[in-house]
Design goal:
The protein is α+β, with helices and mostly antiparallel strands. 24% of the residues lie in helices and 26% in strands. It is built from 7 helices and 13 strands. It has an 8-stranded mixed sheet. A 3-stranded antiparallel sheet has the order 6-5-12, with no helix packed on it. Strands 2-3 form a two-stranded antiparallel sheet.
Length: 213
């Protein structure tokens, strides 16, 4: 696998909307610095739902984007989904929380699936795209940055699968995290999931005791 595209965005206003968004991203040439907050220079505006250490980088697999091209009958240019990285040879369905990606000096850890929103639908000019993306169960991945460094296209990507129980991103999308059964909550708590996901779990004291033990 290798980096096919590195994408940055600048604040823009969606047609018919009053707010600005950083979802408009485009591929850049040359190296870009990655720190614990993501790609330096990338626009992150709605920090209630986006950005932060646990969602520092958003990536899509090139194989998944190619699948979307066949489904939508249109070209998916790098950055169209609002992703920071496009990884050649990667299928999103193969990713699970805790998987790690090594890119030069950089080390990323998968933390959560991308959950589609109204801004994403507006970007795609399709009011039904939220449901369509969730139903496809091929979500892109949010990652935390464990080691910082410079990134650019053509850099090799080394994949390390998390050991033990695999909480796949595909199984996390399209479900209500607030209504998960107890056994599933324990699986989530045992994985290095993003803080925003953990805050939505119906965590009870007995869950915490089991995790600690």
């Amino acid at each position: 696998m290798k980096i096919l595209a590195v994408c940055l965005g600048q604040p823009q206003t969606l047609p018919g909307k009053s707010y600005r968004t950083g979802i408009f991203k485009s591929a850049r040439t040359g190296p870009v610095m990655v720190d614990e907050h993501g790609l330096v220079g990338d626009a992150v505006l709605n920090r209630k739902h986006h950005g932060g250490p646990d969602q520092a980088i958003y990536l899509e697999g090139a194989l998944t984007l190619q699948w979307w091209e066949t489904q939508l009958n249109r070209q998916i240019t790098p950055g169209l989904f609002g992703e920071n990285l496009v990884i050649d040879g990667l299928d999103n369905r193969d990713l699970a929380v805790g998987d790690r990606l090594s890119i030069g000096d950089i080390l990323l850890e998968v933390t959560a699936p991308r959950i589609p929103c109204a801004t994403f639908s507006a970007r795609m000019e399709d009011s039904s795209f939220v449901k369509r993306y969730a139903k496809a169960a091929r979500p892109g991945a949010y990652c935390r940055v464990l080691q910082v460094g410079m990134i650019e296209t053509e850099l090799a990507v080394s994949y390390q699968a998390v050991k033990g129980d695999r909480l796949s991103l595909s199984e996390m999308i399209g479900v209500s995290w607030k209504n998960l059964p107890a056994d599933t909550v324990l699986r989530y708590l045992a994985a290095p999931i993003a803080k925003r996901v953990k805050e939505q779990l119906p965590i009870r004291q007995n869950h915490l005791k089991i995790v600690i033990n």
